[in-house]
Amino acid sequence: MFSITRAAAYAVAFVSLAASVAFADPSMAWDIESAPITSRYIDHASADLDGSALATNPQGPARLAHDVDFSTPVATHAVAAVAGGGIDVAEMGDAQPLHELVDDYAAAEAANEELECLASAVYFESKGEPLEGQLAVAEVILNRVESPKFPDTICGVVKQRNQFSFVRGGRIPSVPTSSSAWRKAVAIAHIAKQDLADSAVSTAMFFHANYVRPSWRGLTRVASVGNHIFYR
């Protein structure tokens, strides 16, 4: 009995150590007076990208917090302690690939103003990006809704002054609703709103195109997805 208990204790210690290593991350603390512009269309398109543009971490060079690999879906696991100190690792199954989810929602409509605002932002900011990049843009907008630093509605975030340059005077331009790009944007909006797919930028609050050089101090680079770089 002593050997079994001691083995279980070792198992708990090993899993705890592995978890602490896997999820270690730099500090999330930052404070800014006003949010940086988050559009890929801001007036930096002619600037060259060099190493100085990514020096967002005052304690060292900027680095990716995650290596983004979308070649396979992410499997979800549940790890729970059981009676007697043992560890039960329950396989929850593979997540449905994002492209299949988009196909499932191909005929979905933007049923309300909030979904339409989210889909519009995805369309104008990332319609040329891979699906993962479009999901990442939607994730940033939803993260802002949950932050006290930004408006508490999707449309409020999207239409916030000086944030997305496709918005003019608080108005979102019309979109070709019969286009495949719009259908994908609507599908991504549904998927993001319902939290149906994991995102590599689940903590991101800002992004910019990889060909511009905004001076964003105090932000931590999270990931690069498609042609966008994301920060928190």
TrEMBL record:
Which Pfam families is this protein grouped with? Hydrolase_2 (PF07486)
Q: Which residues form the signal peptide?
A: 1-24
| Database matches in InterPro entries | Cell_wall_hydrolase_SleB (IPR011105), SleB_dom1 (IPR042047)
User: Which molecular function terms from Gene Ontology are attached?
Assistant: hydrolase activity
The record, for Gene3D superfamilies, names:
Cell wall hydrolase SleB, domain 1 (1.10.10.2520)
Q: Where would I find the Cell wall hydrolase SleB domain in this sequence?
A: 128-231
Q: Which UniProt keywords apply?
A: Hydrolase, Signal
This chain belongs to which protein, by name? Cell wall hydrolase
What species was this sequence derived from?
Allosphingosinicella humi
